[in-house]
Amino acid sequence: MLTSKQKRFLKSKAHHLKPIFQVGKGGVNENLITQVVDALEARELIKVNILQNCEEDKHEVAKEISTGADAELVQLIGNTMVFYKESKNNKKLELPS
Questions:
Q1: What does pTM read for this prediction?
Q2: pLDDT per residue over 7-50, tens digit each?
Q3: What string of H, E and C letters represents the secondary structure of the chain?
Q4: Partners of 49 in the beta sheet?
Q5: What whole-number distance in Å separates Cα of residue 79 and Cα of residue 70?
Q6: What would be the CATH architecture of the domain defined by 4-84?
Q7: Residue 97 in this model has a pLDDT that exceeds 90
Q8: Residue 36 and residue 23: Cα distance in Å, rounded?
Q9: What's the pLDDT score for residue 92?
């Protein structure tokens, strides 16, 4: 689990990021989860956008991605989610303790 200090730090790092995935009509599927896992391994911190035509609740979508990718949901603002997962081989971010 992330502390509030760590979440603040990650939010500030995520501020300038552009969403690299979009969840649309199809909702969350295996393919999306696989891509999110790969992106998190490469970047550690990503943004995901929920499109207007997504039929699932945004909190459900966030929970599904978080659980499926074994990642932390840092933030959910409007239709944008920020996820963090420490990279095994590609560590870039040093979290405050």
A1: 0.94
A2: 999 999 999 999 999 999 999 999 999 999 999 999 999 999 99
A3: CCCHHHHHHHHHHHCCCCCCEEECCCCCCHHHHHHHHHHHHHHCEEEEEECCCCCCCHHHHHHHHHHHHCCEEEEEECCEEEEECCCCCCCCCCCCC
A4: 22, 80
A5: 20
A6: 2-Layer Sandwich (3.30)
A7: no
A8: 11
A9: 86
| Cβ-based neighbour number of residue 27 at 10 Å | 14
Task: Identify the CA nearest to 19 among candidates 80, 67, 63.
Answer: 80
pLDDT for residue 91: 87
**Residue 75's pLDDT is what?**
97
Distance CA 83, CA 4 (A): 15
Structural domain spans, the chain: 4-84
C-alpha distance across the termini of the chain, in Å:
12
